[in-house]
Amino acid sequence: MPAISVMTSAFIDAAELMARVQGVPDHPFTVIEHPIASADAAGLEARAETAVEQAVRVLVAH
Amino acid sequence: MQLTSSRISVDDLAEAQEACHARGWTDGLPVVPPTDEAVAACLEWAMLPPDHLIGIEPVRARSITAEKAAVNAVMAGCLPPHFPVVVTALTALLQPQFGLHGPTASTGGCALLLIVNGPIRHELAMDATFSVLGGADRSRAVIARAVRLVLANVLDVKPGGIDRSTLGHPGKLGYCIAEDEEATGWISLGDQRLGTAPAERGHVSSVTAVASMAPRQVMNEWTTDPTELCETLAAEIRASQLNYSIWPGNYVVVLPPQLRKHFDAAGWTKNDIAACVYERARVRRGDWASVGKGAIVKDRAEREHPALESPEDLLIVAAGGPAGGFAAVIPPWLGTRSHAATVAVGACVDCEVR
Which domain covers residue A10, as residue numbers? Predict the structure, then answer.
Protein backbone atom coordinates (compact mmCIF):
# COMPACT_ATOMS: atom_id res chain seq x y z
CA MET A 1 0.00 0.00 0.00
CA PRO A 2 1.42 3.42 -0.88
CA ALA A 3 2.45 5.52 2.11
CA ILE A 4 3.78 9.02 2.64
CA SER A 5 5.64 10.59 5.54
CA VAL A 6 4.27 13.84 6.97
CA MET A 7 6.73 16.09 8.82
CA THR A 8 6.25 19.41 10.51
CA SER A 9 8.57 22.19 9.40
CA ALA A 10 10.71 21.94 12.55
CA PHE A 11 11.65 18.38 11.64
CA ILE A 12 12.70 18.77 8.01
CA ASP A 13 16.39 18.30 8.75
CA ALA A 14 15.59 15.36 11.06
CA ALA A 15 13.65 13.69 8.25
CA GLU A 16 16.48 14.33 5.82
CA LEU A 17 18.97 12.85 8.31
CA MET A 18 16.86 9.75 8.91
CA ALA A 19 16.41 9.24 5.17
CA ARG A 20 20.16 9.55 4.71
CA VAL A 21 21.12 7.12 7.48
CA GLN A 22 18.51 4.64 6.24
CA GLY A 23 20.15 4.68 2.83
CA VAL A 24 17.37 6.49 0.93
CA PRO A 25 18.60 10.10 0.87
CA ASP A 26 16.01 11.20 -1.71
CA HIS A 27 13.04 9.74 0.13
CA PRO A 28 10.19 12.22 -0.41
CA PHE A 29 7.99 13.54 2.39
CA THR A 30 5.38 16.21 2.90
CA VAL A 31 5.83 19.23 5.14
CA ILE A 32 3.20 20.98 7.21
CA GLU A 33 3.41 23.95 9.56
CA HIS A 34 4.87 23.43 13.06
CA PRO A 35 3.53 22.92 15.74
CA ILE A 36 0.42 20.74 15.68
CA ALA A 37 -0.40 20.37 19.37
CA SER A 38 -1.55 23.97 19.90
CA ALA A 39 -3.26 24.41 16.52
CA ASP A 40 -6.99 25.17 16.51
CA ALA A 41 -9.49 23.34 14.31
CA ALA A 42 -9.01 25.70 11.38
CA GLY A 43 -5.24 25.35 11.69
CA LEU A 44 -5.48 21.57 11.66
CA GLU A 45 -7.79 21.69 8.65
CA ALA A 46 -5.30 23.85 6.75
CA ARG A 47 -2.43 21.52 7.61
CA ALA A 48 -4.44 18.50 6.50
CA GLU A 49 -5.20 20.12 3.16
CA THR A 50 -1.54 20.96 2.68
CA ALA A 51 -0.52 17.40 3.50
CA VAL A 52 -3.04 15.90 1.08
CA GLU A 53 -2.06 18.22 -1.77
CA GLN A 54 1.62 17.40 -1.33
CA ALA A 55 0.96 13.70 -0.83
CA VAL A 56 -0.96 13.45 -4.09
CA ARG A 57 1.89 15.15 -5.94
CA VAL A 58 4.49 12.83 -4.39
CA LEU A 59 2.51 9.66 -4.92
CA VAL A 60 1.66 10.48 -8.53
CA ALA A 61 5.27 11.39 -9.28
CA HIS A 62 6.58 8.12 -7.85
CA MET B 1 43.88 -9.19 17.88
CA GLN B 2 42.74 -7.84 14.52
CA LEU B 3 41.07 -4.45 14.75
CA THR B 4 39.31 -3.15 11.68
CA SER B 5 38.67 0.52 12.49
CA SER B 6 40.44 2.97 10.22
CA ARG B 7 43.62 4.51 11.64
CA ILE B 8 44.75 8.12 11.83
CA SER B 9 48.45 8.92 12.09
CA VAL B 10 49.36 11.86 14.30
CA ASP B 11 52.62 13.19 15.69
CA ASP B 12 51.62 13.94 19.24
CA LEU B 13 48.82 14.17 21.78
CA ALA B 14 47.83 17.69 20.78
CA GLU B 15 47.40 16.68 17.19
CA ALA B 16 45.38 13.65 18.28
CA GLN B 17 43.03 15.94 20.22
CA GLU B 18 42.51 18.24 17.28
CA ALA B 19 42.01 15.30 14.91
CA CYS B 20 39.19 13.99 17.11
CA HIS B 21 37.61 17.40 17.69
CA ALA B 22 37.77 18.26 14.00
CA ARG B 23 35.90 15.08 13.10
CA GLY B 24 33.16 15.73 15.66
CA TRP B 25 34.10 12.68 17.71
CA THR B 26 34.20 14.38 21.11
CA ASP B 27 31.76 15.97 23.50
CA GLY B 28 33.90 19.08 23.64
CA LEU B 29 36.22 17.77 26.32
CA PRO B 30 39.64 16.26 25.65
CA VAL B 31 39.71 12.57 24.78
CA VAL B 32 42.24 9.82 25.27
CA PRO B 33 43.66 8.70 21.89
CA PRO B 34 42.28 5.21 21.15
CA THR B 35 45.49 3.42 20.29
CA ASP B 36 45.50 -0.20 19.18
CA GLU B 37 47.01 -1.22 22.49
CA ALA B 38 44.45 0.58 24.64
CA VAL B 39 41.49 -0.68 22.60
CA ALA B 40 42.80 -4.25 22.61
CA ALA B 41 43.36 -4.09 26.37
CA CYS B 42 39.68 -3.27 26.95
CA LEU B 43 38.54 -6.08 24.68
CA GLU B 44 40.88 -8.57 26.31
CA TRP B 45 39.75 -7.60 29.80
CA ALA B 46 36.13 -8.25 28.83
CA MET B 47 37.13 -11.35 26.84
CA LEU B 48 35.33 -10.06 23.78
CA PRO B 49 36.48 -10.38 20.16
CA PRO B 50 36.44 -7.09 18.22
CA ASP B 51 33.52 -8.15 16.04
CA HIS B 52 31.38 -9.28 18.97
CA LEU B 53 27.94 -7.81 18.41
CA ILE B 54 26.74 -6.05 21.56
CA GLY B 55 23.44 -5.28 19.92
CA ILE B 56 21.55 -3.61 17.12
CA GLU B 57 19.63 -0.37 17.35
CA PRO B 58 16.50 -1.62 15.61
CA VAL B 59 15.00 1.58 14.19
CA ARG B 60 18.01 2.29 12.02
CA ALA B 61 19.51 -1.23 12.03
CA ARG B 62 22.83 0.10 13.34
CA SER B 63 25.03 -2.50 14.98
CA ILE B 64 27.28 -1.76 17.94
CA THR B 65 30.35 -3.97 17.99
CA ALA B 66 32.73 -4.51 20.87
CA GLU B 67 35.53 -2.83 18.92
CA LYS B 68 33.57 0.40 18.36
CA ALA B 69 32.46 0.39 21.99
CA ALA B 70 36.06 -0.08 23.14
CA VAL B 71 37.33 2.72 20.90
CA ASN B 72 34.82 5.13 22.42
CA ALA B 73 35.42 3.81 25.93
CA VAL B 74 39.13 4.53 25.64
CA MET B 75 38.37 8.00 24.27
CA ALA B 76 36.08 8.59 27.26
CA GLY B 77 38.89 7.76 29.67
CA CYS B 78 37.99 4.18 30.54
CA LEU B 79 40.56 1.73 31.78
CA PRO B 80 40.06 -1.95 30.89
CA PRO B 81 38.21 -2.78 34.17
CA HIS B 82 35.58 -0.18 33.29
CA PHE B 83 34.82 -1.75 29.94
CA PRO B 84 32.58 -4.66 31.08
CA VAL B 85 30.28 -2.12 32.74
CA VAL B 86 30.15 -0.08 29.52
CA VAL B 87 29.26 -3.21 27.56
CA THR B 88 26.58 -4.11 30.12
CA ALA B 89 25.13 -0.60 29.98
CA LEU B 90 24.96 -0.71 26.19
CA THR B 91 23.36 -4.16 26.36
CA ALA B 92 20.71 -2.80 28.71
CA LEU B 93 20.04 0.18 26.44
CA LEU B 94 19.58 -2.16 23.47
CA GLN B 95 16.96 -4.35 25.16
CA PRO B 96 13.72 -4.18 23.17
CA GLN B 97 11.69 -2.83 26.09
CA PHE B 98 14.04 0.13 26.40
CA GLY B 99 13.36 1.34 22.87
CA LEU B 100 16.61 3.27 22.59
CA HIS B 101 15.71 5.36 19.56
CA GLY B 102 12.87 7.21 21.29
CA PRO B 103 14.76 8.42 24.37
CA THR B 104 17.77 9.46 22.28
CA ALA B 105 15.77 11.25 19.58
CA SER B 106 12.82 12.80 21.41
CA THR B 107 12.19 16.51 21.82
CA GLY B 108 11.29 15.52 25.40
CA GLY B 109 14.95 15.79 26.33
CA CYS B 110 15.67 12.87 28.63
CA ALA B 111 19.05 11.34 29.44
CA LEU B 112 20.13 7.76 30.00
CA LEU B 113 20.42 7.07 33.71
CA LEU B 114 22.67 4.14 34.65
CA ILE B 115 22.37 2.61 38.12
CA VAL B 116 25.16 0.23 39.13
CA ASN B 117 24.77 -2.50 41.74
CA GLY B 118 26.90 -5.29 43.13
CA PRO B 119 30.55 -5.96 43.93
CA ILE B 120 31.83 -4.17 40.84
CA ARG B 121 31.04 -0.88 42.60
CA HIS B 122 33.90 -1.65 44.99
CA GLU B 123 36.25 -2.97 42.32
CA LEU B 124 35.82 0.33 40.48
CA ALA B 125 35.75 2.53 43.61
CA MET B 126 32.34 3.96 42.81
CA ASP B 127 30.93 6.35 45.37
CA ALA B 128 27.27 6.51 46.32
CA THR B 129 27.27 9.11 49.07
CA PHE B 130 28.08 12.83 48.99
CA SER B 131 26.61 14.75 46.04
CA VAL B 132 25.71 11.47 44.38
CA LEU B 133 23.65 13.16 41.68
CA GLY B 134 26.05 16.03 41.16
CA GLY B 135 29.60 14.85 41.36
CA ALA B 136 31.13 11.74 39.96
CA ASP B 137 34.09 9.59 40.79
CA ARG B 138 36.39 8.49 38.00
CA SER B 139 34.56 5.27 37.23
CA ARG B 140 31.06 6.71 37.09
CA ALA B 141 32.30 9.64 35.02
CA VAL B 142 34.12 7.62 32.37
CA ILE B 143 31.47 4.89 32.10
CA ALA B 144 28.68 7.43 31.53
CA ARG B 145 30.87 9.31 29.08
CA ALA B 146 31.74 6.14 27.19
CA VAL B 147 28.05 5.41 26.64
CA ARG B 148 27.52 8.98 25.49
CA LEU B 149 30.38 8.80 22.98
CA VAL B 150 29.17 5.44 21.62
CA LEU B 151 25.74 6.92 21.04
CA ALA B 152 27.20 10.00 19.39
CA ASN B 153 29.81 8.34 17.23
CA VAL B 154 28.08 5.07 16.34
CA LEU B 155 24.41 6.10 16.34
CA ASP B 156 24.68 9.82 15.43
CA VAL B 157 23.03 10.82 18.70
CA LYS B 158 24.26 14.41 18.67
CA PRO B 159 22.28 17.60 19.32
CA GLY B 160 20.55 18.61 16.11
CA GLY B 161 21.33 15.22 14.59
CA ILE B 162 19.38 12.26 15.93
CA ASP B 163 19.07 14.06 19.29
CA ARG B 164 16.16 16.47 18.77
CA SER B 165 15.85 17.51 22.43
CA THR B 166 14.31 20.94 22.79
CA LEU B 167 16.19 21.55 26.04
CA GLY B 168 17.81 18.35 27.30
CA HIS B 169 19.16 18.43 30.82
CA PRO B 170 22.55 18.20 32.55
CA GLY B 171 22.20 14.43 32.96
CA LYS B 172 23.04 14.13 29.28
CA LEU B 173 26.60 15.00 30.25
CA GLY B 174 26.79 11.86 32.36
CA TYR B 175 24.16 10.18 34.50
CA CYS B 176 25.63 7.20 36.33
CA ILE B 177 25.06 6.44 40.01
CA ALA B 178 25.80 3.52 42.28
CA GLU B 179 23.60 2.25 45.10
CA ASP B 180 24.88 2.52 48.68
CA GLU B 181 24.06 -1.12 49.38
CA GLU B 182 26.23 -1.51 52.46
CA ALA B 183 24.53 1.29 54.36
CA THR B 184 21.10 -0.28 54.14
CA GLY B 185 19.46 -3.57 54.90
CA TRP B 186 17.27 -3.24 51.83
CA ILE B 187 17.57 -5.52 48.81
CA SER B 188 19.54 -3.74 46.12
CA LEU B 189 17.78 -2.49 43.01
CA GLY B 190 19.75 -4.89 40.85
CA ASP B 191 18.90 -7.93 42.96
CA GLN B 192 15.26 -6.86 43.08
CA ARG B 193 14.96 -6.56 39.34
CA LEU B 194 17.04 -9.63 38.47
CA GLY B 195 15.18 -11.77 41.01
CA THR B 196 18.46 -12.83 42.61
CA ALA B 197 18.11 -15.78 44.98
CA PRO B 198 18.55 -14.79 48.66
CA ALA B 199 21.88 -16.62 48.99
CA GLU B 200 23.30 -14.76 45.99
CA ARG B 201 22.11 -11.28 46.90
CA GLY B 202 24.91 -8.76 47.03
CA HIS B 203 27.13 -10.94 44.83
CA VAL B 204 25.70 -10.08 41.40
CA SER B 205 26.84 -6.92 39.65
CA SER B 206 24.38 -5.23 37.31
CA VAL B 207 23.47 -2.09 35.43
CA THR B 208 19.93 -0.72 35.28
CA ALA B 209 19.25 1.72 32.46
CA VAL B 210 16.38 4.19 32.71
CA ALA B 211 15.27 6.89 30.26
CA SER B 212 15.15 9.69 32.80
CA MET B 213 14.46 13.36 33.20
CA ALA B 214 16.45 15.57 35.54
CA PRO B 215 16.30 14.89 39.31
CA ARG B 216 13.69 16.86 41.24
CA GLN B 217 14.90 17.37 44.79
CA VAL B 218 12.47 17.30 47.72
CA MET B 219 13.06 17.93 51.40
CA ASN B 220 11.19 16.74 54.45
CA GLU B 221 13.15 16.89 57.69
CA TRP B 222 10.09 17.53 59.79
CA THR B 223 8.68 14.05 60.19
CA THR B 224 9.76 10.53 61.02
CA ASP B 225 6.50 9.06 59.76
CA PRO B 226 7.17 6.86 56.70
CA THR B 227 3.73 7.53 55.27
CA GLU B 228 4.32 11.27 55.39
CA LEU B 229 7.68 10.83 53.70
CA CYS B 230 5.97 8.84 50.94
CA GLU B 231 3.44 11.63 50.58
CA THR B 232 6.25 14.14 49.98
CA LEU B 233 7.65 11.90 47.25
CA ALA B 234 4.22 11.34 45.72
CA ALA B 235 3.49 15.08 45.69
CA GLU B 236 6.58 15.69 43.59
CA ILE B 237 5.60 12.87 41.25
CA ARG B 238 2.13 14.35 40.86
CA ALA B 239 3.64 17.72 40.02
CA SER B 240 5.76 16.10 37.31
CA GLN B 241 2.74 14.26 35.97
CA LEU B 242 0.87 17.51 35.53
CA ASN B 243 3.72 19.71 34.38
CA TYR B 244 5.66 17.26 32.21
CA SER B 245 4.01 13.94 31.35
CA ILE B 246 0.86 12.43 32.82
CA TRP B 247 1.65 8.93 31.59
CA PRO B 248 2.89 6.17 33.91
CA GLY B 249 6.47 4.95 33.80
CA ASN B 250 9.60 4.08 35.74
CA TYR B 251 10.06 6.79 38.34
CA VAL B 252 13.32 6.56 40.27
CA VAL B 253 13.49 7.66 43.91
CA VAL B 254 16.88 8.25 45.54
CA LEU B 255 16.75 8.06 49.33
CA PRO B 256 19.61 9.23 51.58
CA PRO B 257 20.57 7.77 54.98
CA GLN B 258 18.71 10.39 57.03
CA LEU B 259 15.39 9.45 55.45
CA ARG B 260 16.15 5.74 55.17
CA LYS B 261 16.63 5.72 58.94
CA HIS B 262 12.97 6.60 59.43
CA PHE B 263 11.79 3.84 57.11
CA ASP B 264 14.10 1.37 58.83
CA ALA B 265 12.82 2.36 62.27
CA ALA B 266 9.29 1.64 61.11
CA GLY B 267 10.35 -1.69 59.61
CA TRP B 268 9.54 -0.59 56.07
CA THR B 269 11.14 -2.34 53.08
CA LYS B 270 11.45 -0.99 49.58
CA ASN B 271 8.25 -2.84 48.72
CA ASP B 272 6.39 -1.05 51.50
CA ILE B 273 7.57 2.31 50.22
CA ALA B 274 6.66 1.43 46.65
CA ALA B 275 3.16 0.32 47.67
CA CYS B 276 2.63 3.53 49.63
CA VAL B 277 3.84 5.81 46.83
CA TYR B 278 1.89 3.82 44.23
CA GLU B 279 -1.37 4.56 46.01
CA ARG B 280 -0.65 8.29 46.30
CA ALA B 281 1.12 9.10 43.04
CA ARG B 282 -1.86 9.65 40.78
CA VAL B 283 -3.75 12.60 39.39
CA ARG B 284 -7.09 13.25 37.76
CA ARG B 285 -7.10 14.47 34.21
CA GLY B 286 -9.13 17.46 35.38
CA ASP B 287 -6.13 18.55 37.49
CA TRP B 288 -4.48 19.60 34.23
CA ALA B 289 -6.72 22.68 34.31
CA SER B 290 -4.82 23.90 37.39
CA VAL B 291 -1.55 24.09 35.44
CA GLY B 292 -2.78 25.76 32.27
CA LYS B 293 -3.59 22.59 30.34
CA GLY B 294 -7.36 22.79 30.56
CA ALA B 295 -7.71 22.58 26.76
CA ILE B 296 -7.07 18.84 26.77
CA VAL B 297 -9.17 17.82 29.78
CA LYS B 298 -12.35 17.69 27.65
CA ASP B 299 -15.01 15.35 29.06
CA ARG B 300 -12.53 13.14 30.90
CA ALA B 301 -11.93 15.28 33.98
CA GLU B 302 -12.57 12.37 36.38
CA ARG B 303 -10.25 9.93 34.63
CA GLU B 304 -7.51 8.86 37.02
CA HIS B 305 -3.91 8.64 35.85
CA PRO B 306 -1.57 6.63 38.09
CA ALA B 307 2.12 7.54 37.86
CA LEU B 308 3.08 3.88 38.13
CA GLU B 309 1.52 0.94 36.32
CA SER B 310 2.44 -1.18 39.34
CA PRO B 311 4.44 -0.63 42.56
CA GLU B 312 7.34 -2.52 40.98
CA ASP B 313 7.76 0.30 38.47
CA LEU B 314 9.09 2.53 41.25
CA LEU B 315 12.86 2.11 41.29
CA ILE B 316 14.14 2.89 44.78
CA VAL B 317 17.85 3.56 45.20
CA ALA B 318 19.68 4.02 48.51
CA ALA B 319 22.25 6.76 47.96
CA GLY B 320 23.33 10.15 49.20
CA GLY B 321 25.43 11.85 51.84
CA PRO B 322 24.99 11.10 55.54
CA ALA B 323 23.26 14.33 56.54
CA GLY B 324 20.14 15.95 55.14
CA GLY B 325 16.52 15.01 54.65
CA PHE B 326 16.72 15.42 50.88
CA ALA B 327 15.44 12.87 48.42
CA ALA B 328 15.28 12.92 44.64
CA VAL B 329 12.42 12.02 42.36
CA ILE B 330 13.63 11.26 38.84
CA PRO B 331 10.70 11.14 36.40
CA PRO B 332 10.64 8.95 33.31
CA TRP B 333 10.70 10.08 29.72
CA LEU B 334 7.14 10.04 28.39
CA GLY B 335 5.91 7.12 30.43
CA THR B 336 5.75 3.59 29.13
CA ARG B 337 7.34 4.21 25.74
CA SER B 338 10.58 3.13 27.40
CA HIS B 339 10.85 0.56 30.16
CA ALA B 340 13.89 0.28 32.43
CA ALA B 341 16.24 -2.60 31.65
CA THR B 342 18.55 -4.39 34.09
CA VAL B 343 21.42 -6.58 32.88
CA ALA B 344 23.97 -8.49 34.95
CA VAL B 345 27.63 -7.68 34.40
CA GLY B 346 29.43 -10.71 33.05
CA ALA B 347 32.25 -11.64 30.76
CA CYS B 348 31.47 -13.40 27.51
CA VAL B 349 32.68 -16.85 28.53
CA ASP B 350 32.01 -18.36 25.12
CA CYS B 351 33.94 -15.77 23.21
CA GLU B 352 37.39 -16.43 21.91
CA VAL B 353 39.53 -13.33 21.94
CA ARG B 354 41.01 -12.62 18.56
Answer: 5-61
